[in-house]
User: Fold Diacylglycerol O-acyltransferase from Mycolicibacterium sphagni.
Amino acid sequence: MSTPIDNTLAYMDQGSFLGLRALGRGPVIQYIWIYENGVDLEGLRRFQRNLQHTLLARLIERSPLPFGRHRWVSYDGPADLDIAVALRSRDDVWDWVDQKSFVAIDPELGPPWHLGVQPLIGGGAAVSLAVSHTTGDAVAGMLAIADAVNSTRRNYGFPPPGARSRGQAVRQDLVVTARSALKIPAAIAGGMRLARDQQDDLSTSARSASPASSPAAGGTRLVVPRVYGYVEAQDWDERARALGGTRNVLFAGFSARLGYRLGRADDEGRIALSIPVSERTDDDIRANPLNSITVLANPDEATGDLAGLRAALKQALVELAESGNALLAPLALIPFTPKMAVRRLENLVLKVGKPVGCTNIGEMPPEVNRPDGTDADFFGTRGGEAGVTAATLERLGGHLLVSAASLRDKVWFSVASWEPGGSNTKAALAGVVRAVLDDFDLSATIEC
Assistant:
């Protein structure tokens, strides 16, 4: 891309930013690599410089209007790597990764990403790339990593910060705001239709939004327990075929079974899988071009036959193709939504009950495993909110996010879970993950 483009934030991206500011926290995506025999620091520095020419190298510049549309501007990037001074043992890697989920990254103030290195006792090293989800989703991060490894430079035409005078910004944003206002009637109508369609769900969500009553739910920031692992892709695919499914359907079944074992089934024993669907196109500058589907899965059926889940996923995607625009219509209201309303809407956008987040990035380019130019020995991804508290998690009914990606002939996964009243330790979660793998007759390498 070499010609300037419209740098106005999409409604979804502005909503993500407004949520970040209203709630005081926001999702962060981390990519983790472990090199058992050392890492090329000069290769990582080259990778860091090359990230400055990818979709991650941008910041949000606010409109001077209270209800204006914000814009993307360019960002030059952090000057160097964050290399830890003290060595750690290999067993302590994931504690370090947890710490790096709290790094100071900000889509408006910068930096929008952070690249850290932890040397290990014995000569190895761990690498963490943390990215604000408001800057880019998992696919955007994956594409940026591949571009940086390949030294591919993208010119998106984002202007530098402050390129517009205040007068220019006011005049230009008044025009954009007026155009946005024309969409308000349709957005309100779309929102009312959704409210009617989901009346029972929304009322239940509103009731669940009351303050937590447990005295144990404090305000200290925490890291949601998480385990990482991989299954050989050949074993995964063979098991999927034996159960009448595909790689993606088996992942959905795996997520449903995790939800069941962690107590997230509804009164009928079903698991609500909340699955993001990427709508990213070539040269797409949107940070989060996402829609989503919700599928009710039978966790007992999934371990013996994936045909029903496969059909349900297919039907949900067909319905999304037919009604996806209607679901996104209310987004035009985002620039006109005050912070207080954003806070109150938090439970509603997370939907009713105890959904299981089920995110499968899919097949990744091999370059994604080569931040220093060579293949890492272990790869992991994680999503989640930095700065979440036990009080928030309890109010939201807990949290379960299962992520996966395919790379180097392996299916890599991570599982993050926190349940009100649960043990909420990595060791306990690892035991549940192993039990679910046994449910599917799969063996995996697991770390936590």
Q: What stands out?
A: Residues 58 and 74 are 4 Å apart (CA to CA). The radius of gyration is 22 Å.
